Amino acid sequence: MHNKTSRRSRQNGGSRIPYKILTALIFCLSAGSFSLVNAQTKAPGQAAKIVSKGIINGAAISLPKPQYPASSVKGSAVVKVQVTIDEAGNVIYAKAISGPAALRRPSEKDALQAKFQPTIQDGGPLKVSGVISYNFGVHNYEHEVVALGLGMVFNLPAMIAGDEDFFDNETLAGMIKDVPVIAKELAPLHLIKGQTPEDKAQTIASVAAKVEAKLTGTLAWQYAVGKKIAPVMAELIRAAKDENYRLDESSLRTELLDLKEFLKTAPADFPTPILDKLKEFAEPGDKEHPDPENDLKTIMSKFLELFDTILPGGK
């Protein structure tokens, strides 16, 4: 995971916090039993499951971006490619399902060259069905919502428990560049590598308290949003790791309704496309008759859509 994220951060010169959050969450979910299994196909002499994961850009080890003539399309465009990934993480099928005709063929061609982490469930690898989203000329909001990402990370340490280098020097430098006002407060994270889990959690908690106290205005609002999303994600991770876990439906609904109300106070300068996706993420809280399994799938799907909007195409 670290090699992938650090390689991409060098290409963009930023903090990569939203991207790392997404890949860390996918790591937590793929290690557990909660999966969006929606199809089964039988091969001669055996049964094989295909796991559907929605937008899967964030799970890619390598994701070539199609090259196209500037005259092929005017303005921005999005091409979505339905893919099937084999047990080794190779794309064995790719078919564009939306987007300008001129961009579909090159998108399919490069989707077949992508490489993903193998998906493991019940001790064995599985095939995966998903969608690669290629965004041409679409705005990247990553550096505008770093505080939102920090609010999630600092209040959901389980997300980064499996990544020793989550706060590597490169990522920290990017965070400070994007939010220089908290440079001093972030400094202790340089010491986190090699710490025991207990010391690591203590360091993160201490940094989180200082960062939250220092942020003001839009940055403080963003951090609060991330903090409100964290317990929802915690439920998702618990369900992933324990198939017998009983979802606290009342608590989950309360968290989502609280988030929905808080989003009404969004600062005027907060990006509208991100705000719209956040509102969609909170929608399951309005349901009069919760359906735990499908609600979790919806939440995960909306989470992936949110980060695909923040970081188009996982670039």
In short:
The protein is an alpha+beta fold and 315 residues long. It has helices at 2-12, 17-30, 101-111, 146-154, 169-178, 183-186, 197-214, 217-241, 249-263, 272-282, 292-310; strands at 37-43, 46-55, 60-62, 77-85, 91-98, 115-116, 119-121, 124-136.
Descriptive notes:
Helix 2 packs parallel to helix 8 and helix 9 runs antiparallel to helix 10 (272-282). The chain contains eleven helices and eight strands. By secondary structure, the protein is an alpha+beta fold. The strands form two sheets. Strands 1, 2, 4, 5, 7 and 8 form a six-stranded mixed β-sheet that branches. Strands 3-6 form a two-stranded antiparallel ribbon. Mean pLDDT is 79; it is low at 1-13 and 32-47. It is globular, with a radius of gyration of 19 Å. The two termini are 15 Å apart. It has helices at residues 2-12, 17-30, 101-111, 146-154, 169-178, 183-186, 197-214, 217-241, 249-263, 272-282, 292-310, and strands at residues 37-43, 46-55, 60-62, 77-85, 91-98, 115-116, 119-121, 124-136. It folds into two domains: 37-136, TonB (TolA/TonB C-terminal domain, 2-Layer Sandwich), CATH 3.30.2420; 141-314, no CATH class. Helix content is 47%, strand content 17%.
Dominant shape: globular
Total count of domains = 2
Q: Unreliable stretches, pLDDT < 50, 5 or more residues?
A: 1-13, 32-47
Computed structural class: alpha+beta
Report Rg.
Answer: 19 Å
Largest β-sheet summary: 6 strands, mixed
| Number of distinct helices | 11
Mean pLDDT: 79
* DSSP helix fraction: 40-55%
- As a percent range, the share of strand residues is 15-25%
Distance between the termini: 15 Å
Q: How are helices and strands ordered from N to C?
A: HHEEEEEHEEEHHHHHHHH
Total number of β-strand segments? 8
